[in-house]
Amino acid sequence: EDQVTQSPEALRLQEGESSSLNCSYTVSGLRGLFWYRQDPGKGPEFLFTLYSAGEEKEKERLKATLTKKESFLHITAPKPEDSATYLCAVQVETGGFKTIFGAGTRLFVKA
Amino acid sequence: DGGITQSPKYLFRKEGQNVTLSCEQNLNHDAMYWYRQDPGQGLRLIYYSQIVNDFQKGDIAEGYSVSREKKESFPLTVTSAQKNPTAFYLCASSSGRLGGELFFGEGSRLTVL
User: I need a labelling partner for B71 at 20 to 30 A (CA). Which of A71, A100, A109, B105 fits?
Assistant: First the structure.
């Protein structure tokens, strides 16, 4: 069964304390892996797309990496404004359309 | 500015009533989607549409209906047949092939009283 699991469920950091969020997946075939940021009461906002193992993408304090089994979202020297829920989504290779979302990691950054 | 507009942002419904959530986009995207978000769960796909006058059921279509009469519009009706309709509903769109990078609206929170 295709599955996407994000860990931890919640993460509390001090401002400047770097860390990583994990997205592990078991799917029949990967077409693409996506990271989104979601603020409370808002819709998700696209961050990155990764297509193949070894690929990396960066944006400000965020860096996403991909292996054959998981993706990491590294946050370097986070600031309070980085507090949000980060969602991972995997698009599966299939004859039709199938994208599976993880439950997300809630990140809290304290000043 | 291009984007997706959902309305209303908050909606209260009595049991047994149908309600319609609006979704309009001015991104000129062909594909549009409706997702449901519940606490502690990943987004679940309700319906999606690749082109006008065509739409497909997603993973949890029971109790919902949609239409796609215009490229810009993809309204969702939550019917009385939906047993647990209280949730946060998200409309999204994408250009090119199905899936890929999704652009989301701000969401509509439906509460059944």
Answer: A100
